[in-house]
Design brief:
Layout lengths: L1 H54 L3 H27 L10 H11 L3 H25 L6 H26 L8
Helix pairs in contact: 1-2, 1-3, 1-4, 2-5, 4-5
Length: about 170
């Protein structure tokens, strides 16, 4: 009977150890997933920015596109550094959802493009801010630093997109 209790205790200890390893792996996996998705978001946003810089009728929307392209290129470079530290293979393409949205907006007439682009930038930046905010207290210092650096940029882009949508002058877009 003594050996039965010992086996039971060993199994519980092994189970707890396995659970601890699983939680540690989950935390690392979620950071890896976040940084991969952050890179895909940056790829999408810089492509949307380039598209707007060339297609937008409104000069303010073109300028916003140029800002998006430059800012998200820099954020992508920082995210790639973090990805390498997490041993994540950097994606080269945006998500399938972002590709589909890009294709749809790219096919719009010039008259429809500006409004659809700005509307999408609001939705996309709101979603990105939520994801980044959820990772702002990461245990990984590289992820936390990346988020701390990138969140203000995302918020500025959101404010600029909202200002463009309402016709108000944008503040803090750069």
């Amino acid at each position: 009977m003594q050996s039965g209790r010992h086996i039971g205790r060993s199994a519980r200890v092994s189970g707890l150890a396995a659970l601890a390893v699983a939680f540690a792996a989950f935390g690392q996996g979620s950071e890896q997933t976040f940084i991969k998705e952050a890179m895909q978001t940056n790829i999408a946003e810089l492509r949307f920015g380039a598209l707007a810089a060339h297609r937008a009728e409104n000069p303010a929307v073109r300028e916003f596109g140029e800002t998006l392209e430059a800012d998200h290129r820099a954020a992508l470079e920082h995210a790639a550094t973090v990805a390498r530290s997490l041993q994540v293979e950097p994606p080269e393409e945006p998500s399938l959802e972002a590709k589909g949205t890009y294709d749809g907006i790219a096919q719009l007439s010039a008259a429809q493009f500006d409004a659809a682009f700005v509307s999408h930038m609001i939705v996309a930046h709101e979603a990105a801010i939520a994801k980044y905010s959820a990772n702002s207290h990461s245990d990984n210092p590289a992820v936390a630093a990346y988020v701390a650096e990138t969140l203000p940029m995302m918020r500025a882009h959101l404010a600029a997109a909202r200002a463009l949508q309402t016709g108000a002058p944008a503040q803090g877009a750069n």
